[in-house]
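User: tokens in, sequence out, please.
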């Protein structure tokens, strides 16, 4: 368990530093350079297509890795393979100079890295006892937030060289995944019973019965709603700073400030949330608290469209989202429908994180065009509160 802790952390950092840098900073900048006047609409198109691909890829990767038999275990081949293909796709993004080329390369990038992330997320139910999952969820949650916000911060340094940034973050992910696979190897599972893989199994990849597994359904809904509110703001953060706050070209320099502020409060809540939920044997109360705190943070820029308001948003929402990340993953692993399909089921519930990315750009784009950026905040507040309290009916977890 000790070795797994130390290797799982950099693996998740390597994954999320890429997700933090590219969709939030590098991709919007690249699209803005092509057509500044239509940047919001063009970003919505590219982000929606890419996120839709990710939504399909991750549970499919889980289904395939659940059935993989190799000397390196079921997950490692897909983790490394996804990183290699994703790195090649990022080279394509660096060379792209039209919206179509960017869209194709970004879609391949999303598919490849989700084929790595799906199996990586299954490591916890595979190898960690339930009693320790809150601690491990805190580790992976901290790694995710550290990586995502660190990616935003470092990504802004490549505002004048977006292609170089793509290559750097692809390299970081490959190195981090290799460290995990080499220093925390899984067992050889070639002797395990081979499970059938047919068309029916493939179709079940994207489905679960919420009536048969209601706890899993409520966990899915809670994550979906909270993430929809979060991505409705975060996917447009750069443009919010440019146009709503009025920073213009100076917005890129303010992104690291917000990232550092969020990271500071997330460190506190992640360090406390997961281990404390293990100690008290409760998960749901922390989800409630996290949703309320996240929603409160959005009040700042809604009522005060200034740099100060955005700083309040970063500090307060960072605190709430840290609580959520550190506890929600542990809660989800305790309501999985089948331990034999852990990666597939985690892939399904991760649709609750990727589907909002599909919907958020289009929905947020319509809201911005019709009502302006300010309208995004009250809608996100309602979604986050509903998401937090959606886990209340869950019976298997306190």
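Assistant: Sequence out:
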């Amino acid at each position: 368990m000790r070795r797994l802790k130390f290797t799982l952390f950099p693996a998740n950092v390597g994954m999320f530093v890429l997700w933090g840098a590219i969709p939030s900073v590098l991709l919007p900048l690249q699209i803005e350079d092509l057509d500044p006047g239509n940047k919001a609409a063009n970003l919505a198109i590219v982000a929606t297509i890419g996120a839709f691909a990710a939504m399909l890829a991750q549970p499919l990767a889980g289904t395939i890795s659940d059935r993989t038999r190799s000397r390196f275990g079921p997950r490692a081949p897909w983790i490394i393979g996804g990183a290699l293909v994703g790195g090649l796709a990022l080279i394509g993004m660096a060379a792209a100079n039209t919206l179509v080329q960017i869209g194709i390369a970004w879609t391949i990038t999303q598919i490849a890295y989700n084929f790595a992330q799906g199996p990586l997320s299954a490591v916890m139910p595979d190898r960690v006892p339930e009693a320790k999952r809150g601690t491990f969820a805190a580790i992976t949650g901290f790694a995710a937030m550290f990586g995502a916000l660190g990616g935003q911060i470092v990504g802004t340094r490549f505002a004048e060289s977006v292609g170089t940034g793509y290559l750097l973050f692809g390299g970081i992910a490959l190195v981090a995944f290799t460290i995990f696979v080499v220093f925390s190897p899984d067992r050889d599972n070639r002797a395990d019973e081979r499970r059938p893989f047919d068309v029916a199994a493939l179709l079940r990849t994207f489905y679960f019965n919420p009536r048969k597994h209601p706890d899993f359904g409520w966990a899915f809904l809670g994550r979906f709603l909270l993430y929809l509110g979060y991505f409705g703001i975060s996917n447009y953060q750069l443009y919010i700073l440019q146009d709503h706050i009025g920073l213009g070209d100076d917005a890129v320099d303010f992104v690291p400030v917000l990232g550092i502020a969020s990271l500071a409060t997330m460190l506190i809540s992640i360090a406390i949330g997961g281990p404390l939920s293990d100690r008290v044997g409760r998960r749901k109360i922390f989800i409630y608290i996290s949703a309320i705190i996240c929603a409160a943070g959005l009040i700042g820029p809604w009522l005060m469209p200034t740099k100060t308001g955005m700083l309040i948003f970063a500090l307060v929402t960072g605190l709430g989202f840290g609580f959520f990340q550190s506890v929600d993953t542990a809660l989800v692993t305790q309501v999985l429908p089948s331990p034999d399909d852990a990666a597939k089921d985690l892939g399904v519930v991760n649709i609750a994180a990727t589907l909002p990315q599909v919907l958020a750009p289009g929905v947020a784009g319509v809201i911005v065009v019709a009502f302006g950026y300010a309208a995004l905040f009250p809608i996100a507040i309602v979604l986050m509160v509903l998401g937090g309290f959606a886990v209340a009916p869950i019976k298997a977890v306190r």
